[in-house]
Specification:
The complex is a heterotrimer of chains A (about 280), B (about 280) and C (about 250).
Chain A (H helix, E strand, L loop, with lengths): L1 H39 L5 H5 L2 E2 L4 E2 L2 H32 L4 H15 L2 H15 L6 H25 L3 H9 L4 H30 L2 H7 L16 H11 L3 H33 L1
Chain B lengths: L1 H15 L1 H24 L1 H6 L3 E2 L4 E2 L2 H32 L2 H16 L2 H19 L7 H11 L1 H13 L3 H9 L4 H12 L1 H17 L2 H6 L17 H8 L5 H33 L1
Antiparallel strand pairs in B: 1-2
Helix pairs in contact in B: 2-14, 4-7, 4-8, 4-11, 5-8, 6-7, 8-11, 9-10, 11-14, 13-14
Chain C lengths: L6 E10 L2 E11 L4 E5 L6 H8 L9 E9 L2 E2 L7 H7 E4 L10 H11 L5 H14 L3 H4 L12 H13 L5 E5 L7 H15 L4 E4 L3 H7 L2 E6 L2 E7 H6 L4 H7 L5
Parallel strand pairs in C: 3-8, 3-9, 6-7, 7-8
Antiparallel strand pairs in C: 1-2, 1-4, 4-5, 9-10
Helix pairs in contact in C: 3-4, 3-6, 4-6, 6-7
The chains are: A mainly alpha (about 280), B mainly alpha (about 280), C alpha/beta (about 250).
Chain lengths: ~280, ~280, ~250
């Protein structure tokens, strides 16, 4: 029975190692968040959120960056969500699995793998230069729309796929056309899932930096139109940290960034769990 | 009615082509900006040249390629064992109820912006490395550590999917033959999920190669061939990210050319990963 | 037989890609009768029903030969209005499928599709449909609650009311009582007797007993073939074909 003991010894060691690894991973993650929140939370007064940066960010707050982030994300969603949902509707309701759908999916998967700096280069040459939009909310928002497209498509597709086929059959048997069936039965039922996907995209847009810096610029001035350049929170955070302008402001901006992203993602997670439980 | 339906279908078809269209646009414009420079300098000089001095018109990106490679390898050295451990932990070692807590935590990890990771690396890791291991602290080591962490969610979620997709009979069969839990995991389940796990690693690699902001913040800015893990360095991504703000003319084109190389490498890796996971599905 | 048949099925064969589900069916359906289509599983009964309102068009790779006429018009004519057809021929499925909406909106769904949207008229339409399906009394106080909360039998009657709101000309019922308890089944059958006065009904019964209880005429389907048809009395007591006799007497099933 010596053999048995060795097997169990191996198992014991392996399990200890794995537990250690997993727990240290969580520990490090908590450490990272804790570090920034610890120094940053004290900075987060109401005035921090409502005042714009002064002295290149050495003083004041982050208001104009919040506005910039919001505007950019809004453009991204307004353009990206319809394109993504429309693609998902087409793939699930208007075609069968075949050459066309495979090609579209391949394109979407590839797009999902393009790194953000490449999106930045593209957005710069296409929107900023060629289409003459300059560094602006529009250039940045359109670039972000392209970046979130794969996420919106896949979550929308999953949600639409989950709608029972019987709903569609009922609608058709009552004389509904395909579009009527999609808009009156499929989409309303799939809305929670689609919304969650959009929410996740919002979270992603808020944290995006490389592509935004190259397309929306880094102006601290409050934007006046879609063609105004803006600085988002993440870009502001990056500049503060790298230029060493103000550690205090950097921590504050970082903490605000983390809080926004965490809250959005937790809402999305909650929606997912509620939605899934709701379906079953 | 019929006409309206036909129009809707055509419009939706055009919308569905948008991702392919965007991909084509990206490819076209990046290449349009960058290829002329590669041709002017010569592909060999560009890819293998070791001197990057824009003011003199010298555009060799070999040090960047090598640095990208080393940072990524380092990240994988950390990410693969840790990722695999967490995957096994998630799927085999904890009850499902705890899993529902752990998994969203992984998602949260993925949602944290890379600039936050970079910042933490800058204020915690870099001084640590500088004080205890020498060198400027801004180093490939710092980059690998942070990057290894950043790619964990990718590796974990995809590997876990691979394990979950295995037929339960594998596990039941192994136990029936008298294997311990660990033996089942290590000798049956993991090998069976091999292609999915490999796909996750390749995707993680692509993610690592494409990371820019965090790397700018902690790799330093040295445009030379790295000789040790403690050296500062510049990757393909940071090369673009750092200089794009003030480059113009041929210099700017060279950055696009760097983008072409990056794009090509990552697209190849991702296509490979997609191919692998499609195969697994059969 | 002096009045013209409501539905004429002529030499109709149906294929799911290479599998032939219906073989040369010839059948006339009269107005104001309940015709039951019975037989063992996989005989083509549901396929026949779904061919009548062209729900089979939704499945890829299907084709047919022969023709089906509704009031003398070929329903497979390329110029035929599909949505009109499906409103004229209403279908109730074997599993109750309320849409995830309120009771009221479920019933209003069909009429809304065809453009009826004056809220006032809709109240009347919904009430009339629910009365015809013998469901009004039970739900009149909770019309705007979710239809998913109804019992199985109520849901099935809801599906009937949903169809009736469109004032169809023919009703197709595919095992409407499967999964329902005897009391709900009895209430559905009672409803059918009421409906028979106004609509021709084609019914796929849950079992032979139901067929003989409810229907006027019957057709025995086996492996896609219409083996024999005639009055319910004749089919179930003096079947002409041996296969019909074997099935009806329970020698196979």
């Amino acid at each position: 029975m010596i053999i048995n003991r060795t097997r169990y010894l191996t198992q014991g060691i392996a399990k200890i190692l794995i537990w250690t690894a997993a727990l240290s991973t969580i520990a490090v993650m908590i450490l990272i968040l804790f570090q920034i929140l610890k120094e940053g939370l004290p900075v987060l007064h109401l005035s921090f959120f409502l005042e714009s940066p002064k002295e290149m960010g050495r003083e004041g707050g982050i208001f104009s960056t919040i506005v910039g982030t919001g505007a950019l994300t809004l453009v991204a969603i307004v353009v990206g969500a319809p394109l993504g949902v429309g693609t998902a509707i087409f793939l699930r309701e208007y075609t069968r699995e075949g050459k066309v759908s495979r090609m579209i999916r391949f394109g979407t998967d590839c797009l999902a793998g393009v790194p953000s700096i490449i999106f930045g280069l593209f957005g710069f040459v296409f929107f900023v230069i060629r289409l003459n939009m300059g560094w602006s909310i529009l250039s940045g928002g359109l670039t972000l729309a392209a970046m979130i497209l794969p996420t919106v498509i896949s979550t929308a597709e999953e949600s639409i796929k989950a709608i029972p086929h019987s709903y569609r059959e009922v609608s058709y048997s009552l004389g509904g056309t395909k579009w009527q069936t999609v808009t009156r039965v499929v989409l309303p039922s799939a809305l929670p899932g689609i919304f969650t996907g959009i929410l996740l995209s919002v979270g992603r847009s808020i944290g995006e930096t490389a592509a935004v810096i190259l397309t929306a610029g880094s102006s601290l001035v409050m934007p006046t139109s879609l063609f105004s350049p803006i600085r988002t929170m993440s870009v502001h955070f990056y500049i503060l940290a790298r230029e060493g302008i103000s550690m205090k402001m950097a921590y504050g901006t970082g903490a605000a960034l983390i809080l926004f992203v965490l809250i959005i993602n937790m809402i999305a997670q909650w929606l997912i769990s509620r939605y899934i439980r709701h379906r079953t | 009615m019929q006409l309206q339906e036909k129009i809707v279908e055509k419009v939706l078809f055009l919308i569905a082509l948008s991702s392919i269209f965007i991909l084509a646009l990206i490819t076209f414009f990046i290449f349009e900006e960058g290829i002329p420079l590669i041709l002017k300098v010569g592909p060999k000089a560009f890819l293998l040249g070791q001197k990057w001095i824009p003011s003199k018109g010298l555009f060799g990106i070999f040090p960047m390629i090598v640095s990208s490679f080393w940072v990524t390898i380092g990240a994988l050295l950390l990410g693969i064992p840790l990722g695999l451990a967490c995957t096994i932990f998630l799927s085999e070692l904890i009850p499902p109820s705890v899993g529902t807590l752990f998994r969203p935590a992984i998602q949260l990890l993925a949602a944290i912006p890379s600039v936050i990771y970079g910042f933490w690396g800058l204020i915690v890791l870099v001084p640590l490395i500088r004080n205890y291991m020498g060198g400027p602290g801004l180093s490939i080591l710092a980059g690998s550590l942070v990057l290894g962490f950043m790619i964990l969610p990718t590796i974990i979620t995809i590997s876990e999917d691979a394990l979950k997709a295995l037929p339960p009979s594998y596990k039941a069969g192994a136990f029936a033959l008298g294997a311990t839990h660990w033996q089942t995991i290590w000798r049956v389940l993991i090998p069976a999920a091999r292609s999915g796990i490999v796909a996750s690693v390749i995707l993680g690699m692509g993610r690592a190669l494409g990371e820019t902001m965090a790397m700018i913040m902690i790799l330093g800015n040295a445009v030379k061939m790295p000789t040790s893990f403690l050296d500062s360095a510049r990757t393909l991504t940071t090369n673009i990210g750092i200089e794009m703000g003030y480059a113009s003319g041929g210099h700017r084109q060279a950055l696009f050319a760097t983008g072409i190389v990056l794009f090509f490498i990552i697209m190849t890796l991702n296509t490979l990963a997609i191919f692998l996971s499609k195969r697994r599905a059969h | 037989m002096s009045q013209q048949s409501k539905i004429i099925i002529k030499d109709f064969s149906f294929y799911y890609t290479s599998f032939q589900a219906l073989k040369n069916i010839n059948l006339n359906i009269q107005p104001k009768e309940i015709f039951t289509v019975f037989g063992p599983a996989r005989s083509g009964k549901t396929t026949l029903l779904k061919s009548l309102n062209r729900l089979t068009d939704l499945i890829f790779g299907t084709r047919h030969t022969g023709a089906i006429f509704l009031d003398g018009m070929d329903i497979y004519d390329p110029k035929a209005d599909l949505t009109q057809l499906r409103r004229r021929i209403g279908m109730v499925f074997d599993l109750p499928t309320p849409l995830p909406m309120s009771i009221f909106n479920n019933i209003a769904y069909g009429p809304e599709l065809s453009g009826t949207n004056r809220r006032n008229r809709m109240d009347e339409i919904v009430e009339k449909a629910l009365r015809s399906a013998v469901l009004w009394e039970e739900v009149k106080d909770r019309l705007h609650t979710s239809a998913l909360r109804l019992s199985g039998g109520q849901q099935q009657r809801l599906c009937m009311a949903r169809v009736l709101a469109l004032e169809p000309e023919v009703l197709l019922l595919d095992e409407p009582c499967s999964g329902l308890d005897p009391i709900s089944t009895a209430s559905i059958e009672e409803t059918l007797f009421q409906l028979k006065k106004d609509y021709p009904i084609i019914l796929v019964p849950h079992n032979i007993q139901q067929a003989s209880r409810v229907a006027d005429r019957a057709g025995f389907f086996l492996n896609g073939e219409l083996v024999e048809e005639g009055s319910v009395y004749q089919i179930f007591t003096k079947p002409k074909d041996k296969r019909t006799e074997d099935y009806v007497t329970g020698r196979f099933g």
